[in-house]
Write a structure and sequence with these properties.
This protein is α/β, with parallel strands linked by helices. The protein is built from eleven helices and seven strands. It has one domain: Vaccinia Virus protein VP39 (Rossmann fold, 3-Layer(aba) Sandwich). The longest helix has 18 residues.
Length: 278
């Protein structure tokens, strides 16, 4: 394990995630032993905007039943299960954090989606998949932890079939001055945070062979979503499930720093849709 991988493992691993997630399920009034996808939908996604952002991203790419999808940096499997449940996709989730992968597998099993989802420990720069085997690759708030985005792009290009899409929703570098304060949701230290501007993603994607289909800054969406969540928090307290469960006790500090970075233009949640030519 490299020093960066070790630091990221430490950052994301709580040691109590499964227990916290099961407690959240029970707090919602659901039964972990008789779990339905709707019981956890949108509460199992670890990125700005949660399930709303995932739906917005997926609306920009072709989705067909039986398609093969790789979710790079899958977390606890929220987007993978959404694709499987709503679209009948076969999804392979890849993540560096064993605690995430183990819970992703268990939640899919409990939801009856294990035949459509497969979760593996691995890296976006060395995907455990065959060449030209995937119709779609997704990346939701993961590239911030990947320094070698050139290899990330070439790996996504390698595993996609001709005509396949790479749908990205990352926190990218904004035009504001200065650097974000730490800790952040994806990093406790500057040494494990690798923000790059949209142009860098596009250039590296083009070098790998991709063409750009669409790009959109989602900073205002993120700020509006945060304001809505703050209002709900003030009225009802924290929801049973959500990113705060995955972040643990440091969630308020991490989210506060992230929101400040967006407001200062230091960080910009951004969508990018790339396509591998036919």
């Amino acid at each position: 394990m490299t020093d960066i991988h070790s630091a990221l493992h430490h950052h994301y691993t709580t040691g109590t995630l499964r227990d916290a997630f099961m407690a959240g399920i029970r707090k919602k009034g659901a039964d972990p032993d008789n779990l339905h996808f709707a019981d956890i939908e949108n509460g199992d996604e670890f990125h700005t905007g949660g399930g709303v952002a995932t739906d917005d991203l997926l609306a920009q790419v072709p989705l067909t039943r039986g398609m093969q999808v790789v979710d790079i940096g899958c977390g606890v499997g929220g987007p993978a299960r959404k694709l499987a449940h709503h679209h009948g996709a076969h999804v392979t989730g890849v993540d560096l954090t064993p605690e995430f992968v183990e819970l992703a597998e268990e939640l899919s099993e409990r939801c009856g989606l294990s035949k459509l989802t497969d979760f593996r420990i691995g890296s976006g720069t060395d995907l455990p998949l065959d060449d030209a085997s995937q119709d779609l690759a997704t990346l939701l708030h993961v590239g911030m932890n990947i320094a070698d985005k050139a290899t990330l792009m070439t790996e996504a290009f390698r595993v996609l079939k001709p005509g396949g899409h790479f749908a990205i929703f990352d926190v990218m570098r904004g035009a504001g001055d200065g650097q974000p304060s730490y800790p952040l949701p994806w990093s406790s230290l500057p040494e494990t945070s690798f923000l790059e501007p949209l142009e860098a993603y596009q250039n590296l994607g083009a070098k790998a062979g991709f063409t750009t289909v669409a790009a959109r800054d989602r900073s205002q969406f993120a700020q509006d979503f945060t304001a809505k969540m703050k209002a709900q928090l003030a009225e009802n307290g924290p929801p049973p499930l959500g990113p705060h469960v995955m972040m643990g006790p440091s969630a308020p500090e991490r989210m506060g720093n992230f929101n400040a970075a967006i407001a200062a233009g230091q960080a910009a949640p951004t969508e990018l849709i790339l396509r591998k030519p036919d």
